[in-house]
Amino acid sequence: MNALVLGAGMMGRAIAYDLAKHSQFDTIALTDNDNTTLASAEQFLKNLSIEFDILDINNREKVKTYFKEYDVAISAVPYMFNNLLTNIAVETQTHFLDLGGNTVVVQQQKNIHQKAKNHDVTIIPDCGLAPGLVSVVTQDIVTSLDTTEFIKIRVGGLPLNPQPPLNYQLVFSPNGLINEYVEDAIVLDHGNIITKKSMTDIEKIIFPKPFGELEAFITSGGCSTLPYTYKGRVGYLDYKTIRYPGHCEAFKPLLTMEPRKKLIDYLMQTLPSNGKDVVLMKIFGGGHTNGKLIDLEHTLIDYCDEKNHLTSMMRTTAYPVSIAAQMIERGVINDRGVFCSEEIIPHQPFFQELEKRNIIITKEVR
To answer: What's the Cα-to-Cα distance from 1 to each of 4, 73, 87, 303, rounded to whole Å?
Structure first.
């Protein structure tokens, strides 16, 4: 089988890196529409068996020609292209995975489930960190309990050496960050799908030293389809982003900047982007098993891979989609149609694959 990765930015090159290290694909190709970005990725991935090529994903016919040559395609490009790429993948009978980023787009992809099934294709949106990794953890919680009262997802990518006033560094697209902060968040509240304003409902959350007390607040996109998937099976489910204390209130005034490009330029010029980072996650679940009240807590503290120049955000976002693609390659995933991570990725094999990459999720039962 052959694998194609679209987009040679930080996430795309990390996906290609993991495929080259762990998969059995005969050919792995990484493409981008920018020569400079592609050359940088080629230098980053030197000595690995990866092919590099220029591809403009706005050229539908060219993308279609590429897809016909590959069995699995993985999108690491902005979410607004994922619906187009999904339709091309179904047409060319190419399995397709992406990092998600927008629930409306994912719903559009889900609408062609039967068509994908008829074409013998597996489509898996939302395969990054959140949604993606957290979605599989949620699946683990729901299957561990007879009844699930609540699931509270808390995740954040943070600099190890925060600099005021925002105490943040760019670990992924600033446009994606702004989307998380301005769009309404979806929450499952006892049978009802409701929305909440992002950057509200700040709470304290505690991690071991050196992190200590941090803050978490409502943001959009992180739980994606989870409220819909688990409506009727989970009482309450929400998602909050973890930051250093004070970040939320310090950032809010910046969101008044117009047009958005002005804010993006400001963030690109102001925030660091190459410092050491860490990804923190706590997912709390509660419910009943055999009549007993059970509390579950999944925790992840993942540091950057300095030796291989991979940030923690690259590792925890790119490796999950690479693992899912390899599960298709090996036949672990063989259902056809459009499925989100919580619906199709088996949690135990997934966690085992993460552990091979030293991404360790601890689970406490109380």
So the answer is: 10, 11, 21, 32
pLDDT in tens, 15-72: 999 999 999 999 999 999 999 999 999 999 999 999 999 999 999 999 999 999 999 9
Which part of the chain is CATH 3.40.50.720? 2-128+318-350
Query: For 77-91, what is the HEC assignment?
Result: CCHHHHHHHHHHHHH
Q: Which of 237, 221, 218, 219 is nearest to 229 (CA)?
A: 237
Sequence-separated (6 or more) residues with CB below 8 Å from residue 307: none
Contact in structure between 346 and 332 (CB atoms under 8 Å): yes
Question: Is residue 298 within 8 Å of residue 138, measured between CB atoms?
Answer: no
Q: How many residues does the chain have?
A: 366
Architecture of domain 2-128+318-350 in this structure = 3-Layer(aba) Sandwich (3.40)
Kindly report the average pLDDT of the chain as a whole number. 96
What global pTM score does this model have? 0.96
* CATH code for the part of the protein at 133-309+360-365: 3.30.360.10
Which residues in the chain are classed under CATH 3.30.360.10? 133-309+360-365
- DSSP result, 350-364: HHHHHHHTT--EEEE
By DSSP bridging, strand 203-207 and strand 212-218 are antiparallel
Cα 173 to its chain centre, rounded Å, is: 12
Distance CA(72)–CA(95), nearest Å, equals 5
pLDDT in tens, 124-136: 999 999 999 999 9
Note the pLDDT of residue 171: 77
Locate 255 and state its tokens: 């969101």
Structure tokens at 185: 């968040």
Enumerate residue ranges in the chain where pLDDT < 70.
Answer: none
DSSP 8-state secondary structure symbol assigned to residue 180: H
